[in-house]
Amino acid sequence: LQSSQPQTAAPKPSYDRTDWQRGYESQPNESDYWIDNIEGEIPAGLQGTFFRNGPGLLDVNGQRIHHPFDGDGMVCAIALSEGRAHFRNRFIHTEGYLAEQKAGKILHRGVFGTQKPGGWLANIFDVKIKNIANTNIIYWGDKLLALWEAAQPYRLDPRSLETLGLDTLDGILEPGEAFAAHPRIEKGKNGKGDRLVNFSVKPGLSSTITIYELDESGKLLQRHAHAIPGFAFLHDMVITPNYCIFFQNPVTFNPLLFLLGFRSASQCIQFSPNKPTQAILIPRNGTDEVKILETEPCFVFHHCNAWEEGGEVFVDSVCYESFPTVEADGDFREIDFDSVPAGELWRFKLNLQDKTVQHQVVETRCCEFPTLHPNNVGQPYRYLYIGAADSPTGNAPLQAILKIDFLTGERQIWSGAPRGFAGEPVFVTRPGAVAEDDGWLLVLMYDAAYHRSTLVILDARDITKGPLARLHLKQHIPYGLHGSFTPN
Ligand code: 3ON
Ligand code: FE
Q1: What's the gap in Å between 267 CA and the centre of ligand 1?
Q2: Whole-prediction pTM value?
Q3: CA pair distance 472, 453, nearest whole angstrom
Q4: Is the pLDDT of residue 4 over 90?
Q5: Is the ipTM, as predicted for this complex, more than 0.90?
Q6: Confidence band, pLDDT 50/70/90 cuts, at residue 186
Q7: Is the model's pLDDT at 1 over the cut of 50?
Q8: Pocket flag, ligand 1, residue 151 (CB < 6 Å)
Q9: Would the CB of 136 count as within 6 Å of ligand 1?
Q10: Which of the four pLDDT bands, split at 50, 70 and 90, describes residue 8?
Q11: Ligand 1 pocket, residue 395 CB under 6 Å
């Protein structure tokens, strides 16, 4: 592997570790208020609700959750209307959350290392999966859905965020059938409506990927399942007009220590640096043959976008040199950033005729959580927005937003360093916009200076000029995962 991952850390960190760590304190309180601490002005055309999901609890009654990906889902909703902003956050009342809050202790093992107290004997042969609904939140087909990739979605009331229960999408999902946390929305053209494309994975010695395509009302348009060789750990997917594309990371899964109660499922995943990464292309018509192409070993959680051009398929992804083993001991807050690989942006060119893949490293600055204009999903695109480290080299927490112009190669950066920490940017189109970057980026940031979170609104055309508005919350929201914006 020709390593392009810089091994040298920045000479002087752009942040203080204690600051960063405090963004991982639990937020057990649910609130509901008008945001009155606003710097700048909320743009007049920005009307709708920003929803964001993520772990709200990093402990259960003082018992530590081993990894943030194991934390119970808590949804934030910031409603923007006529220059005013209303904040609300609520926990998703999953079965596991309710039971653990009632018991005052951890009752379930987590996929990312959380164990029931009492050592391996307390955990042996417990393979139950706790649906924590913590990864994404989307409004589709008149339903607000909290997603977690290994289980069914939870439906919430979009106004009160009250949990309405597990949802089968009106019978599309069998009870217990998963619905991944990374749907892609294809914008309808020529009078056609938008489509939501999502998947589920049943991992095993051979894994099954099921594809779902839903129309705007939530009705099922397509559903097809495909067996692919080997254990699959697939967090994300990208689409083009003809394909759903997955990157099968080169990993092996040996669940013995999981079954015996010593390790969680993710701790039994081993990165195999000598195996290729496989690009799996599933034709969206559900009938043509699945194509599998091989490329460099790397680990991908998130893809940015994919498109077809001149008979080739392009995929932009955030790549890691390997899958960092989730340690069994210790505290994730004590992570040595220099010893784990940073995400970089890679562009893959897939030639379906010769079955070859070429790639190019597009950006080496540590980055994660990519997004783009919704109209360009599955299409060629010019602008990418992504969370990034403040420093151009080394692995570090996300503190900045990076905008990349693929046409000119120009980069723009806006950083919240030293005391601000960034989450995923969400792009919102300005009503009446023509240019691809004519819109806003909404980013929920953690501000260590006040131990609170702030919704930052950037003008996507020029992020370097700094936020148009900063909406300061009264409390902090732990670092989260994904979100979306629903216009009024
Ligand atoms: O046993 C199998 C293995 C496995 C890992 C099967 C399985 C389906 C149960 C499974 C489960 C996977 C799950 C539930 C994955 C969930 C992932 C998740 C909640 C989040 C992933 C986040 C990824 C990234 C890159 C986050 C980055 C965060 C930051 C930069 C910090 O702000
Ligand atoms: Fe994700």
Answers
A1: 12
A2: 0.96
A3: 6
A4: no
A5: yes
A6: very high
A7: no
A8: no
A9: no
A10: low
A11: no
Query: How many other CB atoms are there within 10 angstroms of residue 437's CB atom?
Result: 21
**Structure tokens of 248?**
């099968």
pLDDT for res 133: 98
pLDDT at 290: 97
Pocket of ligand 1 contains residue 265 by CB under 6 Å: yes
**Nearest-CA residue for atom 2 of ligand 1:** 265
CA 452/CA 466 separation, integer angstroms: 19
Burial of 416 (0-12, 13-18, 19+ CB in 10 A): buried
SS3 120: helix
Residue closest to 369 by CA, chosen among 319, 405, 318, 316: 318
Could you check whether the bond before residue 13 is cis, i.e. omega within 30 degrees of 0? no
Question: Mean pLDDT of all residues in the chain?
Answer: 96
Percent of the chain predicted with pLDDT > 70? 98
The response to whether residue 317 sits with its C-beta less than 6 Å from ligand 1 reads no
In this structure, the number of other CB atoms found within 10 A of the CB of residue 426 comes to 20
Q: Give distance in angstroms: CA of 58 to centre of ligand 2.
A: 18
129 Cα: distance to centroid of ligand 2 (angstroms): 19
- The residue to mutate among 235, 257, 271, 477, having the most atoms of ligand 1 within 8 angstroms of its beta carbon, is 235
- What was the pLDDT predicted at 52? 99
**How far apart are the CA of 269 and the centre of ligand 1, in A?**
12
**CA gap 467, 486 in Å, rounded:** 21
CA 82 – ligand 2 centroid, Å: 32
Q: Is 277 in the pocket of ligand 1 (CB under 6 A)?
A: no
Distance CA 158, CA 274 (A): 47
Instruction: Express as a percent the part of the chain with pLDDT over 90.
Output: 93
Instruction: Report d(CA 92, CA 147) in Å as an integer.
Output: 11
CA of 85 to the centre of ligand 1 (A): 31
Is 149 close to ligand 1, i.e. is its CB under 6 Å away? yes
Q: How far apart are CA 52 and CA 90, in angstroms?
A: 11
Cβ–ligand 1 contact at 135 (below 6 Å): yes
d(CA 430, CA 100): 43
Are 440 and 46 contacting, i.e. CB atoms less than 8 angstroms apart?
yes
